[in-house]
Amino acid sequence: VTVPSPPCPQSAQYGSCSLRTMGAMEALDLLDQLVDESDPDVDFPNSFHAYQTAEGIRRAHPDKDWFHLVGLLHDLGKVLALFGEPQ
Q1: Distance CA 82, CA 34 (A)
Q2: Rg of the Cα trace of the chain?
Q3: Which UniProt keywords apply (predicted)?
Q4: Could you tell me which residues are annotated as the binding site for Fe cation?
């Protein structure tokens, strides 16, 4: 018998996706309002990192369009810091 693990604490708050609705491009724009604790000295927008990552993956793997998208979206969860979650 497998006992299910309890959901993470954020599931109740964010699981319904009802806090805010936004598209990927809006979320990328919101990233630019965030000072990333892992790179506080970087003086270019966080969205630039997402585009750089996606472009680097596109050059290295031109046949894997899904991978380009993953590179673009990989840091979007950081926008939760703008809603009070720790980084």
Answers
A1: 7
A2: 16
A3: Cytoplasm, Iron, Metal-binding, Oxidoreductase
A4: 49, 74-75
The Cα 86–Cα 38 span in angstroms is 12
What is the predicted pLDDT for the residue at 63? Answer: 98
Range of the domain at 55: 22-83
Residues annotated within the binding site are 49, 74-75
In a domain, 16, yes or no: no
Is residue 12 included in any domain, yes or no?
no
Q: Does residue 67 lie in a domain region?
A: yes
Q: For residue range 58-81, list pLDDT tens digits in order.
A: 999 999 999 999 999 998 988 989
- Which has the higher per-residue pLDDT, 2 or 87? 87
Q: Enter the pTM of the model.
A: 0.75
- Count of domains in the chain? 1
Mean of pLDDT values over 36-48: 82
